[in-house]
């Protein structure tokens, strides 16, 4: 009589739910990686430094897609248990997957704390030496100087979206453009864009015709070499983009909190599901390792033998009862 099959410790709902979620992320990551790579090849992009990397959406898209594909692959294969070989291998990979997601989740929480400290606790920011405007200032200097249309478009989009000018954390952030070789207001500058700012700083109302010269002469030079607001400053946004972002977060704290929860909760859910499946896999393996569930290495019509001789004649002899301790030849 056949022995009744024992119930599996692995819940199929948990297994296929984790597989489905990771498969969707795998498809999205693959699409991101292919699209980002195609854009990089199309424009012959060469990443020279960190600013070129972080200010280029295509490089970020390509890198993020590759990471998503890598992690989601292990999530998919770890969720599927087609045979014991996959089970043993991917069970060990779950440890790395959960660890990676935990580190990534902690990094996001640290980023949220960083944003809170940066905008709402200025004294702590100064003590910790958190000055991201220095990094942003480097992008202002490279704007239009380095042949990188992506960085130019990135800065223009930020200034238009946040309605700001310059990337600093100041009310008069537009004065940061004085450090750009094309827009600086020094007496030695021969640039036709002298004492100006990019057109993306301009205030444009709905229905107005775009004037690329609206940022002309918004800075006036002083005898000491510094600059002051010029006559046309009312035509542009003057606040720096970091300052504008802080003002937006301050006035839209609930929206920002909802977005963060929308990002963190799915990750925490996937981590919990993967952890649950990992424990179920361990429980199933423990059940298989019980002595009564271990398969015998040799099975014939007679008794089951665990230690099977390598020699063919000896195996035949044992099968027919020769030198077999389970048979009594003298009885």
Secondary structure: elements and pairs:
Blueprint: H1 12-42, H2 50-54, H3 57-79, H4 84-120, H5 122-128, H6 133-142, H7 149-162, E1 219-221, E2 227-229, H8 241-251, H9 253-288, H10 312-319
Antiparallel strand pairs: 1-2
Helix pairs in contact: 1-3, 1-9, 3-4, 4-9, 8-9
Membrane topology: Multi-pass membrane protein
Transmembrane segments: 21-41, 53-75, 96-121, 253-273
Organism: Mytilus edulis (Blue mussel)
Mean of residue pLDDT values: 72
Helix share, percent: 40-55%
Query: How many helical stretches?
Result: 10
Instruction: Using the CA coordinates, give the radius of gyration.
Output: 33 Å
Number-wise, the strands total 2
Q: Could you list the spans in which at least 5 consecutive residues all have pLDDT below 50?
A: 82-88, 297-310, 318-331
What does this structure look like?
By secondary structure, the chain is mainly α. Helix content is 55%, strand content 2%. The protein is built from ten helices and two strands; from the N terminus they run αααααααββααα. The chain has a two-stranded antiparallel ribbon. α1 (12-42) crosses α9 (253-288), α3 runs antiparallel to α4 and α8 (241-251) crosses α9. It is elongated. This is TSPAN33. It is a multi-pass membrane protein. Residues 286-295 have a biased composition (Basic and acidic residues).
């Amino acid at each position: 009589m056949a022995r009744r099959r024992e119930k599996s410790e692995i819940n199929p709902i948990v297994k296929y739910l984790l597989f489905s979620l990771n498969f969707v992320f795998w498809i999205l990551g693959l699409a991101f990686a292919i699209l980002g790579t195609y854009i990089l090849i199309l424009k012959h992009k060469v990443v020279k430094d960190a600013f070129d990397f972080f200010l280029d959406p295509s490089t970020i898209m390509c890198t993020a897609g590759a990471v998503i594909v890598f992690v989601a692959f292990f999530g998919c294969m770890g969720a599927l248990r087609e045979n014991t070989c996959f089970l043993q291998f991917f069970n060990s990979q779950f440890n790395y997957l959960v660890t990676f997601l935990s580190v990534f989740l902690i990094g996001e929480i640290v980023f949220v704390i960083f944003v809170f400290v940066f905008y709402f606790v200025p004294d702590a920011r100064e003590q910790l030496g958190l000055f991201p405007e220095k990094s942003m200032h480097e992008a202002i200097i490279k704007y239009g100087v380095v042949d990188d249309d992506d960085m130019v478009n990135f800065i223009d989009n930020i200034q238009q979206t946040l309605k700001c000018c310059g990337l600093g954390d100041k009310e008069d952030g537009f004065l940061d453009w004085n450090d750009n070789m094309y827009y600086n207001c020094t007496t030695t500058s021969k640039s036709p864009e002298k004492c100006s700012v990019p057109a993306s700083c301009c205030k444009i109302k709905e229905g107005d015709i775009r004037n690329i010269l609206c940022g002309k002469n918004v800075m006036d030079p002083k005898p000491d070499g510094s600059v002051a607001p010029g006559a046309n400053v009312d035509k542009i946004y003057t606040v720096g983009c970091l300052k504008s972002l802080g003002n937006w977060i301050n006035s839209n704290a609930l929206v920002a909190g909802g977005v963060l929860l929308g990002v963190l909760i799915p990750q925490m859910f996937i981590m919990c599901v993967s952890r649950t499946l990992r424990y179920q896999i361990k429980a199933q393996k423990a059940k298989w390792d019980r002595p009564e569930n271990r398969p015998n290495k040799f099975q014939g019509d007679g008794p089951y033998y665990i230690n099977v001789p390598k020699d063919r004649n000896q195996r035949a002899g044992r099968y027919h009862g020769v030198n077999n301790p389970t048979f009594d030849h003298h009885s």
